[in-house]
Amino acid sequence: QVQLVESGGGLVQPGGSLRRFCAASGNIFSINRMGWYRQAPGKQRELVAVIISGSTTTYADSVKGRINIFRDNADNTMYLQMNNRLPEDTNVYYCNAGVNSAAWGYPDGYWGQGTQVTVSS
Length: 121
Fold this sequence. Notes:
The chain is mainly β. Helix content is 0%, strand content 52%. A hairpin with a 3-residue loop joins strand 5 and strand 6 (56-59).
């Protein structure tokens, strides 16, 4: 089993920046994928950013250029830097980790508790 604990900011003004953290613990040696997903009311949970094998990154088109993801494989901590936030970025964000590289859609694996991120003046 793997436990994911999310932390970091959740409220930011339009154009501002914030950082989210996700720390993995437990049986983490088999984890090869860590990423962030978001879900708006009435919408499917969708990929924001994912990092595979500690270095290969993929970003959703809607956030590309405004998101940077990094994983510290030594302590299994993932960092998500979110810049130039827009009101449309207001969503519940979830940390995810899994043993495979299939990140698109609704992946299997483990999930964090989810955190409301609000972009508002």
